[in-house]
Every structure is written in structure tokens, then in C-alpha cells.
Amino acid sequence: MRGALGTGAALVCSGAPLLPVGTAPAEPQVPQQDWAALRKEVQGRVLLPGEADYAAAKRLFDTRFDAALPAAVVQAATTDDVQAALAFAAANGLATTARGGGHSYTGASAADGTVVVDLRKLDDIRYDPAPGPDAPTGHVTVGAGATTFAVQDRLTPFAQTVPLGTCPTVGVAGSALGGGIGVESRAYGLTCDRLSAATLVRTDGRLVDISATHEPDLFWALRGGGGGQVGIVTSLTFRTCPATAKDIVRLTFPSGSAARVLTGWAEWLRTADRSAWAKAEFAVRDGDVTTDVLLVCPAGTGAANITAITASASATPVSVDSHTLGQRDAALLLAGGTTDPGHTAFVAGSDVLIDLTPEIADAIVEILTARARSGATGGLLVDPLNGAVGDIPFDYTVFPWRDHIALLQWFVSEPADPAEAARWIAAAHERLGAHSVGGYVNYLEPTDSPRRYFKDNLDRLRRIRAGTDPGNRLHSSPALW
């Protein structure tokens, strides 16, 4: 699945929305006349199992969840529809889950027995250039159904952006609720760090406006706590940041250079200007491990950054693919050259590193090399966590990884045996041992404890969740209990 930019652009779509771990409450039997009443109440559609469009409506990005059987899919056309769906679910003892981009790594947004509130039609994007506190270039308000590429496209005429991932169909809401990592994160922080306000429907159907000064506990929970913890978000407002033309460069290094490149990449990060971002990518195929670095930096600075990266890595790339592009074209290239990557199956998991020493790099490469020798496939994406991400205290948002250097995302695309792929990723965690301090909630693995993703922020998140959803009717990602 190498797109125009290679391994990571169209494969696992980093920054994807959130995931469930728990089991939804047992599904009650709802009389048909009650479903009929809900249909009359909403402007959108209510689709039940066996109906013509139900299978397409519940389908997610990951084809492993095609057999999921939610109780219903409510395709909300308005915020009122979301309120009606949650009130209906509460009255009938049904669990609910939100569906935005549909990239949940464990199928949260089509969970069995739930009422899926499909937010894709709530995709309005409005830019307000008026400056505000900590927002000299204005704000953008996006509906919960807006996708990454749609937001970049809408902001292009204003030369504005928000730190976002690169997969074009990932929902901005889901990504932000778990943190949100992208090519602007070293300069401007996480997606959730730019959040200034949101609207949310609570489990009883009430609509709530949320900000740092109104419902501050809920505002805290929305910034990195994962999807569906305190309600269903219908819109989010972000502080924008300036968008500039970019040099986008792929450096492909020779076989056998993975450890040097990984260590050199980490060394470069420590002194690189925050306007420059790069991730290391490794693919296991044909019995070998390929090594690439994807660099994104302001136009005109690519050559200097290439020189610095290759010097730190003590390695010469075998090929250099370079482009200088404006905002929209850069977003399209980083998306793999398409705004619709279609559907695929994958298994993935993550590790967070405080440091990336030669010892740790060797351990990572040993994991990949052993995979290659076994004849299997897989890969690893290594994103930076330094720069502006580290400017915020660990407890200011739920996202706890503020004094760390790298996020590792292990993946197997189109696995012949998903269980075997999951075992390989679990073995990678074990091999890293204490070098890994946790994982990223947007890359949730279904058997993990939530403390692995939230650390000391978990206790406060649990208290907030218990106060907002005492009946545990939100199918959250992850479950906190």
C-alpha cells in the first residue's frame, strides 16, 4: 500500500479516530413502532439490520469489521438528530457510539448492539479570521463529520491550517479527541492543543457548549481522552495557524542502514527548527527492511534539512524525491495522491519512547529484521513527539506524552492472520520493555489497560466519565472500567 509518498501515506492513516475495548450493554429488544417513531422525529435516516442501505452505512475503513452488527445506524442530518438519537437510546436502554471518519482501530464506530450516530453529514467548515486570545489568525469551526482533507481544502484560500494528520478521510473530531498528531505538530502542537470550544450532546440528549471556562472538566476530557467518553461531539472550534508552502522530501536509504538512520533521525530532532518535521518509516517485505525518512519543512529549507539528516545518520540516501507545493497540493501528496483511499484491513499498535538511544534503535531494528527473516510482512512508522508538543504540562490535557521523543506505530496491512499480526505487535512491546512507557489512544489495542494510554491522567478522566455517563451507555474508546 505505498502511495505517492510511500509506506505511511495511505496505509495506516495515522491520526485515525478512536477505539473501544469494553463490551456494550446487552441489546434490548426495541419494538418496530418505536423505531418508526424515531424515523419521524429525525431529518436524517434510521437504518436497521436487513434494510437495503444498512450494510453500506455501518461499513468502516477497516474491512475486518464488515461483519459488525449495530442495532441501528442513525444518519444524522442535524444536531437535533443527534439529540434525538441519544435520547431514544437512553429511553430504550441502548448503548450509543459516534461514527465520523470511521477509522477506529478496533471498530468502535460500528460496535455490535449499539446505536451508531453517523455524523458524516455534519461536515460544515467555517473560518472566522477575527483574532482572539491566543488566536491571532482566527478560528475554524468544523462539524464532527468533517475530514482531514476537507478542512485543509477549505482553509487553503485563507492560508490557514490546523495541525492534522495526513490520511484524507480520517475524521477531524475523532483525531482531535485522542490527541491528533501531524506534520505541523512540532511547530504548533497537537490537534487537541488548538481546540478552543466544542458542542456536545450528553447521554440524555441535552446539548452543551464547552470551553475552558464553561464545563472545564468536559473540555479537559475532550482533549486527548478518546472518543465517546463524555458524550457525542457535534462541532469543534480550533485556533488556526499560518499555512506555508512546503518542501516535501522522501529520502530512501540503502538496506542495512535502518539503525543508523533511526538514531540519526532522533539526533536531528533534538536541534532541528520546529518548522521542520520528519518521520522515519520502515517496511518489511521480500525478506528485507526498507528505510525511508519523510521530511516536511518550509519551502526553501529542504536542502539544508536533507544535509543535516544525512549527516546525523551517517548514511547517504539511494534516492531523493522532492516536491515544493502549496497547502492543498501538499495535503494531497501526503495523502498518497488521493482523497479517497478506499477500504483495507490492518492490525496496528503503538509504543511511546522517552528517548531513542542506539540501544533502543538496535532493538527496534532487531524486531523488524526478525519479521523479515520469517517471510512475513509489516512495518513501523516513527513520528516525532518533541517541539511544541512538549510545551504543555502532561496534565493540562488528557494526552500525557509531553516529555517524549517518539511515537512508534507497528502495523501489518491486509494480514492473512490478524491474530498472528497482533501477537507480533505484542511481542514488539515486550521486546522494548521499559523503553516503552505507553501507547497512543488513537492507535488503541483491544486488550490493553487504559492506563497504558493515559497514565496518571486516567483517574481524573474516570471521575469525569462516571459523572457524565453513570449508566455506562457510551461505547467509549477505550472503555475506562
Automatic annotation (TrEMBL):
<comment type="similarity">
    <text>Belongs to the oxygen-dependent FAD-linked oxidoreductase family.</text>
</comment>
<dbReference type="GO" id="GO:0071949">
    <property type="term" value="F:FAD binding"/>
</dbReference>
<feature type="domain" description="FAD-binding PCMH-type">
    <location>
        <begin position="66"/>
        <end position="243"/>
    </location>
</feature>
<dbReference type="GO" id="GO:0016491">
    <property type="term" value="F:oxidoreductase activity"/>
</dbReference>
<dbReference type="Pfam" id="PF01565">
    <property type="entry name" value="FAD_binding_4"/>
</dbReference>
<keyword id="KW-0560">Oxidoreductase</keyword>
<dbReference type="InterPro" id="IPR050416">
    <property type="entry name" value="FAD-linked_Oxidoreductase"/>
</dbReference>
<dbReference type="InterPro" id="IPR012951">
    <property type="entry name" value="BBE"/>
</dbReference>
<dbReference type="InterPro" id="IPR016167">
    <property type="entry name" value="FAD-bd_PCMH_sub1"/>
</dbReference>
<dbReference type="InterPro" id="IPR016166">
    <property type="entry name" value="FAD-bd_PCMH"/>
</dbReference>
<protein>
    <submittedName>
        <fullName>FAD-binding protein</fullName>
    </submittedName>
</protein>
<dbReference type="InterPro" id="IPR036318">
    <property type="entry name" value="FAD-bd_PCMH-like_sf"/>
</dbReference>
<dbReference type="Pfam" id="PF08031">
    <property type="entry name" value="BBE"/>
</dbReference>
<keyword id="KW-0285">Flavoprotein</keyword>
<dbReference type="InterPro" id="IPR016169">
    <property type="entry name" value="FAD-bd_PCMH_sub2"/>
</dbReference>
<keyword id="KW-0274">FAD</keyword>
<dbReference type="InterPro" id="IPR006094">
    <property type="entry name" value="Oxid_FAD_bind_N"/>
</dbReference>
